[in-house]
Amino acid sequence: MRPLRHPRRGATLLEAMATMVVVVFGILGIALAVLASAKQNRRNLIQAQAGLIAEQEMERITAMRCVTPAPGRPCENIEALDRDRHEVWWSANGTPRYLAPVAGEPVRMKYDVAVDVDPPMEGEEAGTPSLARDVLPGLRLANVVNVRVTVSWQDPDKVLRAVALQTRMTP
After folding, report:
1. d(CA 37, CA 83)
2. Contact between 159 and 47 (Cβ < 8 Å)
3. Which H helix or E strand runs over 44?
4. Helix, strand, or coil here: 12?
């Protein structure tokens, strides 16, 4: 009797190269997914920071409350904020700064803040559809100003983006 010979079976060069290609494409796919995820996370962080700045600005304005120093001019102090523009820098320590950074100070992002107060008063607007609001049938809002805070920024892809908050105020 002759002993059975078992030929040694190994991977051929072609099989090894095919395996390497599959592994390389898998690693490349994972790396691209991680990069896309990091980019989206950064975009979400920037938008969240802009939203926080808009909320803080709106809170500051609503805390001023409407002041009517003269009859027929409700919320005159709020109207004075119309077309107010300023910049806010998000500092490297994770807080918004309202003063321009000094030379060499690390800043992560610059946001432009714009306030728009819409007199004429609610109910005096022109156009269709009417913007007048009925609180109850036959009862209209009067002496109301619309306040809008818009925070805009240019993202790393050089696209201009914005977050806007709006509220109404009355004396």
Report:
1. 37
2. no
3. helix 13-64
4. coil
Beta bridge partner(s), residue 149: 115, 165
- CA distances in angstroms from 28 to 33, 67, 79, listed in the order given: 9, 61, 56
CB contact burial 59-93 (16+ within 10 A = b; e otherwise): eebeeeebeeeeeeebbbebbebeeeeeebbbeee
Residue 125, amino acid: E
Nearest to 82 by CA among 168, 149, 16: 149
Each of the 171 residues of the chain gets a pLDDT tens digit; together they read: 566 666 667 778 888 899 999 999 999 999 999 999 999 998 898 999 999 999 999 999 999 988 877 766 678 888 888 889 999 988 777 778 888 887 877 777 899 999 998 865 555 666 555 556 677 787 776 677 888 999 999 988 889 999 999 988 877
Full-model pTM: 0.73
Nearest to 147 by CA among 111, 124, 115: 115
